Amino acid sequence: MRDVEHLSARGDVTERRPITQRSAQRVHVADGRISAPEGDAIAVEEPLEIRLASDTLATVMRTPGEDHFLAAGFLFGEGIIRGLADLGRVAHCGRPSDAGYGNLIDIAPGPGTALAPELAGARRGTVVNAACGICGRERIDDLLERLGRNSSALRIPAQLLARSVDWLRERQSSFSRTGAMHGALALTREGDQLAVSEDVGRHNAVDKVVGKLLYQGQLSPERSEADVLAVSGRTSFEIVQKAAAARIPIVVSVSAPTSLAVDLAADCGITLVGFARAGVFNLYTHPERVNVAR
Fold first, then answer.
1. Is residue 192 part of a domain?
2. What is the pLDDT, as a whole number, of residue 194?
3. 191 lies in a domain?
4. Is there a domain that residue 255 lies in?
5. What's this model's pTM, rounded to 2 decimal places?
6. How do residues 221-260 score in pLDDT, each as one tens digit?
7. Within a domain: residue 48?
8. How many Å apart are CA 55 and CA 143, to the nearest integer?
9. Which domain holds residue 208?
10. How far apart are CA 187 and CA 13, in angstroms?
């Protein structure tokens, strides 16, 4: 592992954890009953300002924790870094006693590395959300030129893809408590689970998983040990983009893809699976990788 300062539960311990408590009342519409206020598990959502050599790169709304993985995965997916060697020190700024401590992380380039986010088109001075990202065919073509096409001749049993979302759900402990967390899980073709993360943002969960693969030595610009990325929620353009950048040939989701996600998956050589539920799924692109024989 590289020199990384982990976010710990310092300062306001409750708010630094991924789950907090808020008061809620239960309303029963059928008989008009309303319960007394009681504590309810709530997913924490806070901004994280990502700085590159003290210069603000982006602000994302995320669940606190695993911020160094999130930052590394974000930089890798945007093409700002090519691998872990491009990263120097990754640390939160400020002191634990400061208000909002833990919501600003600074990344120093690795020795002999000059990182240029402007060249990657990744600088975002505003909050990153589902409305941000890639717009226009020209920008998409630029992205395809950077990512290339995944030519993996991998073939995976349909049963494994169907089970991948079940394995993800089993490991979403924070979702079980709050109902407000997305999840991402990276697997091998044999079904070995390499990395899993949860976050209030779908993109963040994927970035955290990509960051873990980087730090675990399972991802480089040339190869990835992960063959399948299982995600909760809908599959957007950016989810496919992150999978393509991480050289993961198959993306499986419990929900629907967007039209742009399907188009990008087709262009990038990504097998895209949606609506994977109860042993049934939709196969949108590159079906040659899925073995349906029993």
1. yes
2. 98
3. yes
4. yes
5. 0.86
6. 889 999 999 999 899 999 999 999 999 999 999 999 998 8
7. no
8. 24
9. 156-291
10. 33
Point out the residues that are catalytic.
Answer: 132
* Predicted local confidence at residue 139, as pLDDT: 61
* Tokens read off for 88: 């120097």
Q: HEC profile for the chain?
A: CCCECCCCCCCCHHHHCCEEEEEECCEECCCCEECCCEEEEEECCEEEEEEECCEEEEEEEECCCCHHHHHHHHHHHCCCCCCHHHEEEEEECCCCCCCCCCCEEEEEECCCCCCCHHHHCCCCCCEECCCCCCCCHHHHHHHHHHHCCCCCCCCEEHHHHHHHHHHHHHCCHHHHHHCCCEEEEEECCCCCEEEEEEECCHHHHHHHHHHHHHHCCCECCCCECCCEEEECCCECHHHHHHHHHCCCCEEEECCCECHHHHHHHHHHCCEEEEEEECCEEEECCCHHHEECCC
CB 91 within 8 A of CB 2: no
pLDDT at 68 over 90: yes
Q: Of residues 25 and 6, which shows the higher confidence score? A: 25
Question: Per-residue pLDDT tens for 201-226?
Answer: 999 999 999 999 999 999 998 899 99
Identify the CA nearest to 270 among candidates 258, 282, 284. Answer: 284
CATH number at residue 239: 3.40.140.10
Q: How many residues are given for the chain?
A: 294
Half-sphere exposure of 178 (CA within 13 A, CB side): 23
How many structural domains compose the chain? Answer: 1
